[in-house]
Amino acid sequence: MAEDVHKAPAAPTRRLTLDELVERDGQTVFELCTRLVTKHGPGLSRQAVCRHPAVLEAAEPVRARRQGRHESHDLNTEPPEHIATRWLRPDTPESAP
Q1: For 9-20, b where at least 16 C-beta lie within 10 A, e where not — what string?
Q2: Cβ distance 75 to 21 under 8 Å?
Q3: What is the pLDDT averaged over residues 25-39?
Q4: Which positions are tagged coiled coil (predicted)?
Q5: pLDDT of residue 95
Q6: So what's the pLDDT on residue 90?
Q7: pLDDT in tens, 59-91
Q8: Which 8-state DSSP code applies to residue 8?
Q9: I need a surface site. Which of 11, 28, 42, 85 has the fewest CB within 10 A?
Q10: Is this prediction's pTM over 0.85?
Q11: Which CATH number fits domain 2-95: 3.40.50.1820, 3.30.230.10, 1.10.10.10, 3.10.20.30?
Q12: Where are the beta strands (DSSP E) in 1-97?
């Protein structure tokens, strides 16, 4: 799974999705699609955007939560923080392998 954390932001659309969640957490896939297409042009289709939150959720930088019939996505900073802690502060106990 740690390898997935590194691969998940490899696609440009996934990086844009993460940027959108940094700006505003709790967005549905429809909201993410609308914001990405509005900001970055019609070259991004809904179909192209829809699969990326699931990939990010599987790698854990994004968490999904149900609200009635809708699923909202939130940024989960724990995996990248763990990676940063491992190399930026190697003397801390949680960074030990």
Answers
A1: beeebbebbbeb
A2: yes
A3: 90
A4: none
A5: 46
A6: 63
A7: 888 899 998 998 999 988 887 777 677 777 666
A8: G
A9: 42
A10: no
A11: 1.10.10.10
A12: 62-67, 70-75
Q: What is the mean pLDDT of residues 42-65?
A: 83
Q: Which amino acid is at 4?
A: D
Written as six digits, the tokens of 43 are 């070259």
Tokens of 70: 């809708």
The radius of gyration of the chain's CA atoms, rounded to the nearest angstrom, is 15
Contact in structure between 15 and 9 (CB atoms under 8 Å) = yes
Q: Distance between CA atoms of 14 and 60, rounded to whole angstroms?
A: 13
Question: What does the alpha-carbon distance between residue 73 and residue 76 come to, in Å, rounded to a whole number?
Answer: 9
Using DSSP's 3-state secondary structure scheme, residue 84 falls into helix
Torsion (CA) 78, 81, 82, 88 in degrees, nearest 10: -170
